[in-house]
Amino acid sequence: MASELYNVIDALSREKGIDPQIVVSAVEDAIVVATRKYYKTQENLRAELDKESGQIRAYAVRTIVEGFEQIEDPNAQITLEEAKRVDPAAEVGGELRTYKPTDVLGRIAAQLAKQVIFQKVREAERDTVYNEYIGRVGEIINATIKRTEGQDVIVDLGKAEARMPRKEQSRLESFAPGERARVAIVRVEKASKGPQVVVSRAVPELVSHLFQTEVPEIYDNTVVIRAIAREAGERTKIAVMSKDKDVDPVGACVGMKGMRVQSIIRELRGEKIDIIEYHEDPVTFAEKALQPAKVSRVTVLEGEDKHLEVIVDDSQLSLAIGKKGQNVRLAAKLLGWKIDIKSEEEKRQEVEERMSGMMVQQATPLENIPDLEPGIVEKLVAAGITTVEAVADMTPEQLEEVPGVGPKTVEKISIAVNNYFSSLEPVEGAVAEEVPPGEEVVAEEGAEGSAAATEVSDGEEALEQVDAVADNAEELFAEAGTEDAADSGGQSGDDEGLPGEPEASDESVKELVDEGQYFEAEVIEGVEDASNADEAEVTTHERPEVENENIPDEEKPGEAR
After folding, report:
1. Residues 124, 141: one domain?
2. CA 327, CA 319: separation in Å to the nearest integer?
3. Are residues 348 and 228 in the same domain?
4. Are 165 and 97 contained in the same domain?
C-alpha cells in the first residue's frame, strides 16, 4: 500500500499534469540539498523515497578501487580494504553506501527542501506545457478569455494559459472575461517565466477552419480551399475549387440564402469575405481575384518572376485598388503574383511616351535632305528645328515665323521635304529587274524609233487626207469656171458684161456644208504651200460661224476628228 506522502505526490502530479516520478525525483533532490547543507559535506549524496513506508533516506556513495594509488577523489572513491571493513561483500568497481540520518535536518532544511520541490515541479510543468503545444502549432482550439493585460488578452487553454498580442487580434473584436472564442496556436516560446503559448484570431487558418466547420463539402474534401488571403477585421479573399463537376464550389460555400457564409461572418464580427472560384490560368484567376472591379485585360509581364499587368477602365481603377490598396494587395497574396494595376488612360500615356521616345531616337537631321540649301538649314537650326520630322509637323504659317524664312523659302522647304520622303517610299507596283549590259541602250533606241515611226505615220495619213480634199476642190472649181466662162463676155477682173452673180442661199450653203466642200476648201487654203508632214506642223483653221446653222456635233469643222 502506498504511503500517504506518495499519495499526495500522485495527486499533485495529476493536478499539474506531470509525471509522478518527476515529483518524486524533485523530493529526493530536495532531501539531498538539505542533507548537504546540514552536514556541510562535498560527498556524492543521493536520496531515496520508499514508496511503501514513505521514508526518505539520504546516503553518500563512493566507488571502490583496488588501492590508494587509484584514488583521485577521496570523497568519491574508497579502497577495497576500507570498503570491506564496512561491507564484507564489497568488490572492486562496486559502490559503497554510507547512510546519513535525516531526522536531524530541522525546520530550515525542510523549508529549503520545499523550495527545491516547488522549483523542480514548476520546471517540469513548463516542459510539459512546451511539449504539449509545440506539436500543435497551427491548430484551432477553443479557449476561454481569462483577463486583459495591457493590449494583450490572456486566454485559458485548459492546461496552460496563452497570450494573444494586439497584432494577432481583429480590429472588430473585443472580448469580456469568461467569453469563449476559437483561436489558432501560432507559436510556443521558451521564456524565463516559463513557456508562452501565443494564439491568434487574425491568421487565415482560422477562416479556413470555420469554412471546414460550416461547409460539409469542404469537410469531406469535395470542395478544396486552394488559396486564402486575409486582413483581419477588414476583408478576406478565399479561392475554392470543386473536385466534382456537379458541385458549384462558390455556391456550396455561400449556402442557401447565404446562411453558411453569414455564420462565419458573425463569428468574425462582421468581416467581409469574398469567395472566388480558383483557376489554374493566372490571367483568368487575376480577373476573378480583383472582383468586384471589372478588368479590361491582363498581361503577363514576367512568367518566371510572376509579374502581371492589369488594365482596368478609368471608372474602375479606385474600385480595383480598393481602400488603401487593400483589394489589389489581397489579390496579389491570393495569386502569389506581383500585380501592377493601371487605368486605360495611364496605359495610353505610357504607350505615347514610348512612341515619342522611339520617334526621338529615329529623328533625321536636316542635313540629310539633299535638296535643302545650307543657308536654309542654318536658319532652321538657329530656330531650334533640327530634324526632318519636326519640319514635317510644322504648318507654313509656323515656318514663316522663323527669322529669315519667307513664303518662297517655305515653298522650297516643302518641296525639299516632300522629295525626301518620296525617295524613302518604294513605288507601288514597280518591279526592279536586272538588265544585262548593252540591252538597256537598245531598248531606249527602240522606244525612240517607235515614237518617230508613229509621228511619220500620222503625218502621212494627214497628207493623204489633204490631197483628197484638194482634188475635190479642183473639180468643184473647174466646173464653176466653165459655166462662168460660157456666160461671161468680158475679161477677168472686169465687172462689165458679166451677168449678175446670184447670192448664196441658206439651202445652198447647207448643201455645201453637208457635202463637206466648204470645209475642204478652207483646209486646202491653209495647207496649200505646206511642206512635208515630217518637217512642219499641219494646222487647220476654223470657218466662221453661220447664223441659224444646225450642224450635227460629229461633223463640226475646225475640231480634230
Report:
1. no
2. 8
3. yes
4. no
Beta pairing class for 307-312 and 152-156: unpaired
Joined together, the cell numbers standing for residue 518 give: 466648204
Indicate which CATH number applies to the domain containing 393: 1.10.150.20
Find all residues with CB under 8 Å of 259, minimum gap 6, and list them. Answer: none
Instruction: Calculate mean pLDDT across residues 40-59.
Output: 81
Alpha-carbon distance of 560 to 462, in angstroms, equals 11
Indicate the burial class of 212 (C-beta count within 10 angstroms; 0-12, 13-18, 19 or more): middle
**Mean pLDDT within 90-101:** 82
Same domain, 546 and 509: yes
Instruction: Tell me the average pLDDT across 407-430.
Output: 74
Q: Above 60 in pLDDT, residue 467? A: no
For residue 405, count other CB atoms closer than 10 A to its CB.
20
**135-165 confidence digits (pLDDT tens):** 888 899 999 999 998 888 999 988 788 999 9
CA angle in degrees (0–180, nearest 5) for 76-82-84: 115
Residue 163: inside a domain, yes or no?
yes
- Domain range spanning residue 561? 504-561
CA dist 335 and 232 (Å) reads: 18
Q: Does 80 map to a domain?
A: yes
Q: Is the sign of the CA dihedral 417, 419, 420, 421 positive or negative?
A: positive
Domains: count for the chain: 5
For 321-346, give the DSSP string. H-GGGHHHHHHHHHHTSEEEEEEHHH
Report the distance separating Cα 272 and Cα 15, nearest Å.
43
CATH number at residue 91: 3.30.1480.10
Examine the domain organization and report whether 416 and 325 are in the same domain. Answer: no
β-bridge pairing 161-164 and 196-200: parallel
Q: Does 318 have pLDDT greater than 50?
A: yes
CB 298 within 8 A of CB 308: yes
pLDDT value, residue 2: 55
Residues 229 and 346 grouped into a single domain = yes
Round to whole Å and give the CA distance between 510 and 427. Answer: 56
Residue 323 CA: distances (Å) to CA of 138, 316, 328, 508, 546: 30, 13, 9, 106, 96
Query: Of 353, 375, 406, which closes a domain?
Result: 353
d(CA 380, CA 392): 12
Residue 287 inside a domain? The answer is yes
What pLDDT was estimated at residue 560?
44
Q: From the CA atom positions of the chain, what is the Rg in Å?
A: 61
Q: Give 378's pLDDT tier (boundaries 50, 70, 90).
A: confident
Neighbouring CB atoms inside 10 A of 434's CB total 4
84/90 Cα distance (integer angstroms): 6
Average pLDDT, the chain: 75
Do 146 and 54 belong to one domain? no
Task: Give the pLDDT score at 102.
Answer: 78
CATH classification of the domain holding 228:
3.30.300.20
Q: Quick one: 320 and 228 in the same domain?
A: yes
Q: Is residue 155 part of a domain?
A: yes
